Structures are given as structure tokens and as C-alpha cells.
Amino acid sequence: MKDFFENNCDVAEDLLPLYADGGCSENTAKLLRKHLDVCPECRKYLKSVKRMKSKLLEDDIPDSAPDYKTLSKKIKRRRKIYTSIITSALILLTAGDIIYFITNDR
Ligand SMILES: [Zn+2]
Questions:
Q1: Sequence-separated (6 or more) residues with CB below 8 Å from residue 1
Q2: Residue 14 alpha carbon to ligand 1 centre in Å
Q3: Is the pTM of this model over 0.70?
Q4: For residues 18 and 50, is the Cβ–Cβ distance under 8 A?
Q5: How far apart, in whole angstroms, are the C-alpha atoms of residue 38 and residue 6?
Q6: How far apart are the CA of 41 and the centre of ligand 1, in A?
Q7: Which of 2, 17, 25, 74 is deepest in the core (most CB within 10 A)?
Q8: What are the tens digits of pLDDT across the range 6-39?
């Protein structure tokens, strides 16, 4: 399996999207890099895959206001976080008071 991808652009092209995602095993990546070194066609393909990927990532960033469901979920999550912070603060304060009373009890 020395030059598995040699003259085997189909297989290489199947794997290149995975390679671009970093989802290949190190051995597969090594073989692909070897093939990319000698195959300008697949290099071009990899470039277009990467370009497409970054475009998709850009599209993932919302350019409009988040919809209500996401927003309310976010608010609920934030409220939960605040509630737990306040609760633990109260517990700490109470515990501090108790410890204070115990240690200063004469
Ligand atoms: Zn190729």
C-alpha cells in the first residue's frame, strides 16, 4: 500500500473533504499528502473543498437576529446560571456566618 492513491484520484477525492476536516487517520493523511505532492488535480480539488468549507462556516454565522426559540433558550440557560450562582453565594454566605458564629462563640 505504498502509493495507494497513485493514479487513484477517485479515492483521494472521496477522502479529501474528510482530510480537510482533519478527520483522517494519520496514515491516511500521510498517503493523501503524498498524493497531493504529485497530483495537481487533487490539490486543486482540496483547495476548492477548503474554500467551500470556509464559505459554509461563514454562512453559519447568523447575520440576522436569532429566532425566538433560540433566544428564549439562551435566556433560560442564563437565568439558570444566575440562579445557581446566587444560590451558591447564599449558601457560602450562610456557611460563612455559621462558621463565624461557631469560631467566635464564647
Ligand atoms: Zn489525484
A1: 31
A2: 10
A3: no
A4: no
A5: 9
A6: 5
A7: 17
A8: 678 998 999 999 999 999 999 999 999 999 999 9
